[in-house]
Amino acid sequence: MTFKVFVDGQEGTTGLRIHEYLAARTDIEVLKIDADKRKDPAERARLLNAADVAFLCLPDAASREAAAMITNPNTCLIDASTAHRTVPGWSFGLPELARGQRDAIRASKRIANPGCHASAFILAVRPLVDAGLLPRDAAVSATSITGYSGGGKSMIAEYEQQPLPVHLQAPRPYGLGLKHKHLPEMMAHTGLATPPVFMPIVSSFYKGLAVSVPLQLSQLAAGATPEAVHAALAAHYAGERFIRVMPLRDAATLEGGFFDVQACNDTNRVDIFVFASDTQALVIARLDNLGKGASGAAVQSMNVHLGVEESLGLV
Ligand SMILES: NC(=O)C1=CN([C@@H]2O[C@H](COP(=O)(O)OP(=O)(O)OC[C@H]3O[C@@H](n4cnc5c(N)ncnc54)[C@H](OP(=O)(O)O)[C@@H]3O)[C@@H](O)[C@H]2O)C=CC1
Ligand SMILES: CC(=O)N[C@@H](CCC(=O)OP(=O)(O)O)C(=O)O
């Protein structure tokens, strides 16, 4: 059986990477839009409605427009943008989120995939909330280090200037208004009642991302230990093909004591670490922002939705 797939935003960073995944598939027929009609609403609407699955790899406003163009009840939309991640009627495209999430993605014709920072944060935190270790009203903070491809074509062009301006050569914290667009989905899909204080940092490497969540053990449920934090994560992701919970205090993965944020690149994998002292823990989730952070995750959502092997085409 062959499925018809259209990528709206096929020339963008996420869309191009999805195309690379699809090119290797024999079960997919890719519907292409002529280059000069990429933004033609009538042609987009025709192809969106001809598709079994349409990926939206667009700015938020264009994603909302695309969703409004759908008249075919069989078209399944998988939206990579921020537009629908907490909108009722849309399923969150993170199969590992909780029991039942795969069934929701399978049944839904509207799937909103997580943001790259949010994917890592949610995967690090949700099991701790579900296990009762992290109270829902906890005051949590998080830092994300990310490559510049997370900012799409415009940020890639900025970072690929030659020579690279000095201010772009060092890591750059941003989102300092503390209203990053991923905060709503971070709360909605972890169950936290308060938004985390979240600081992303973009730096001069192409891709790779790691979100760190520091925890004072005294702020967790009574008696919580690093072992309990690690065990909750390991139990939540047992049997998950794309999520590896690394050994507690996994010094062996550090290079001379340093953490490698690029080590999941070119995979759909998320590695989760728990580093700890007697009184504190640091949970780190690492992924490829264009893999499990965007395009790989979108293909995984499609596979789950279509009921084909979930790992097809993904490593
Ligand atoms: N990059 C990443 O790591 C991640 C990105 N995302 C999200 O995925 C979406 C796409 O991001 P990304 O690929 O990085 O962005 P890019 O800027 O690289 O690509 C967006 C593409 O959409 C096209 N486009 C803009 N408006 C329209 C329109 N009205 N009709 C058709 N096409 C249009 C652009 O055209 P043109 O080429 O002319 O500019 C461009 O090719 C965004 O919402 C982003 O936030 C999500 C997770 C991670
Ligand atoms: C480096 C950089 O700018 N990253 C983007 C997030 C990329 C992402 O996940 O995008 P969406 O939520 O838009 O889908 C940011 O922090 O806004």
Report on the structure:
With 315 residues, this protein is an alpha/beta fold. The protein is 30% helix and 21% strand. The chain has helices spanning 13-23, 41-50, 60-68, 101-107, 116-130, 152-159, 183-188, 226-236, 291-306; strands at 3-8, 28-31, 53-56, 76-79, 91-92, 110-112, 141-147, 172-173, 197-203, 209-216, 243-245, 270-276, 280-287. The strands form 2 sheets. It has a 7-stranded mixed β-sheet. The two termini are 23 Å apart. The mean pLDDT is 97. The structure holds NADPH dihydro-nicotinamide-adenine-dinucleotide phosphate (NDP) and N-acetyl-L-glutamyl 5-phosphate. N-acetyl-L-glutamyl 5-phosphate is lined by residues 80-82, 115-117, 146, 150-151, 155, 181-182, 200, 202. The active site is at 116. This is N-acetyl-gamma-glutamyl-phosphate reductase. Its main location: cytoplasm. Residues 4-105 form the Semialdehyde dehydrogenase NAD-binding domain.
